[in-house]
């Protein structure tokens, strides 16, 4: 998205100030895009739309005289009520000019964004953490490289050095008169003219020949230009395939009977954002969808998001299914392994030890990044009592024992749809940005 500042510049605003304004305006539009996602359905997440930003947010700061305070001197016309030296009481609230708004206010700025602009703003600073160059695959053209020169192209691609080299070669080959030779011939003509004037000697014939030669060289010099269009050379660029790291994202979702419709909606929204992010930002990341109750199965995207299957809860079945798929298709030696798991935290007590063992001993050593999202009810009784946000589930406490290994295993909780996007950005923000937010 490009924002153009078309305001007049009567105050001589510097380029830095105008760029700062454009950055602030883009940040406001980006925030409005992110806020609009809270009320969208899963199917409409990637659609274009209209966003608004308050007019007051894009006003530039300026110095103005305060409505109250300070010493002022005024020259007022005569009146019937006051004499010189009388003290005039300050009107309450600073008077009519105190800055209070009267009547109608300013409208908000409205932006209609295309689908491409919406997604660019939405996914601006996200990435897959710790993407390592394991086995590389040559995919579609990802970059460009210089591939010689061409006789046509963009002015910005003009090669000055190569163009001037061609110009010099052409001028030498066509024997274009040099400026030094023209200057010598002109000086000789001037010398003979001065000599004839001083001594009266007759050099008319010699001067005629020199002037004729000078005119011939001048015509030739004009015909053979210094730089001709045939001299122009432009740097030529061609697309080139770049080796791209292979990665696979395993999406594990609990759809057991303990997951209410509200919890499933939170999990689906998280995975919809994740799927959109992967499709938009990475061409060579495969996504594996696994749903589980007391048994797990690999499903397609449609079944993952819209199937209504339910049952008991055995979390270990999802991890076992993931390990089986890894063994069959995605060797950790060749693929970057990512895991995103969503659950309400309920699990059979007899299955907890197995689940922790699978996660800690078999998945964590080979995974680049594991994100666990625990979803809860919209109105938690503990919140109404002023207690913690959500009660720690058995799975949450068990996963808390796993060594995070410098941020490779991350856990977050959500209980309302408005929390999905902030948590998603926190999990997949670029490392530098995430560290900056954590410090602040």
TrEMBL record:
InterPro entries: UPF0229 (IPR006698), vWFA_dom_sf (IPR036465). Signal peptide: none annotated. Pfam families: DUF444. Keywords: Coiled coil. Residues 182-227 form a coiled coil. Residues 55-106 are annotated as: Disordered. It comes from the Bacteria. The keyword Coiled coil applies. The keyword Coiled coil applies. Residues 92-102 have a biased composition (Gly residues). NCBIfam families: PRK05325.1-2 (NF003707), PRK05325.1-3 (NF003708). Belongs to the UPF0229 family. This is UPF0229 protein WG901_11975. It comes from Novosphingobium anseongense.
């Amino acid at each position: 998205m490009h924002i153009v500042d078309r305001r007049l510049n009567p105050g001589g605003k510097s380029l830095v100030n105008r760029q700062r304004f454009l950055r602030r305006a883009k940040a406001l539009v980006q925030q409005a895009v992110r806020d609009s996602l809270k009320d969208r359905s899963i199917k409409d997440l990637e659609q274009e739309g209209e966003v608004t930003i308050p007019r007051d947010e894009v006003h530039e700061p300026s110095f103005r005289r305060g409505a109250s305070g300070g010493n002022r001197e005024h020259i007022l016309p005569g009146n019937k009520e006051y004499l010189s030296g009388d003290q005039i009481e300050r009107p309450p609230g600073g008077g009519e000019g105190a800055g209070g708004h009267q009547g109608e206010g300013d409208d908000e700025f409205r932006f209609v964004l295309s689908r491409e602009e919406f997604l660019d703003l939405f996914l601006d600073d996200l990435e897959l953490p710790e993407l390592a160059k394991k086995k590389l695959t040559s995919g579609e053209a990802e970059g460009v490289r210089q591939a010689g020169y061409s006789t046509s192209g963009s002015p910005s691609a003009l090669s000055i050095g190569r163009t001037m080299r061609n110009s010099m070669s052409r001028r030498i080959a066509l024997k274009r008169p040099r400026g030094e030779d023209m200057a010598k011939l002109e000086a000789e003509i001037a010398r003979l003219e001065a000599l004839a004037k001083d001594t009266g000697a007759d050099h008319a014939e010699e001067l005629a020949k020199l002037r004729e030669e000078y005119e011939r060289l001048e015509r030739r010099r004009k015909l053979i230009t210094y730089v001709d269009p045939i001299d122009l050379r432009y740097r030529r660029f061609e697309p080139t395939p770049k080796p791209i790291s292979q990665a696979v994202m395993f999406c594990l979702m609990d759809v057991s009977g303990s997951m209410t419709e509200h919890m499933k909606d939170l999990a689906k929204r998280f995975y919809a954002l994740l799927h959109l992010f992967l499709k938009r930002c990475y061409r060579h990341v495969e996504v594996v969808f696994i749903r589980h109750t007391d048994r797990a199965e690999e499903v397609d995207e449609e079944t993952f998001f819209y199937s209504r299957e339910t049952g008991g809860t055995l979390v270990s079945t999802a991890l076992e299914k993931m390990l089986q798929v890894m063994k069959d298709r995605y060797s950790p030696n060749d693929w970057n392994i990512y895991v995103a798991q969503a659950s309400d935290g309920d699990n059979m007590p007899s299955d907890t030890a197995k689940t922790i063992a699978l996660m800690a001993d078999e998945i964590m050593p080979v995974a680049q990044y594991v994100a666990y999202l625990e979803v809860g009810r919209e109105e938690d009784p503990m919140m109404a009592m002023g207690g913690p946000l959500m009660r720690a589930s058995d799975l949450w406490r068990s996963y808390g024992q796993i060594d995070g290994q410098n941020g490779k295993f991350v856990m977050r909780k959500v209980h309302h749809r408005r929390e999905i996007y902030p948590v998603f950005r926190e999990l997949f923000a670029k490392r530098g940005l995430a560290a900056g937010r954590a410090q602040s």
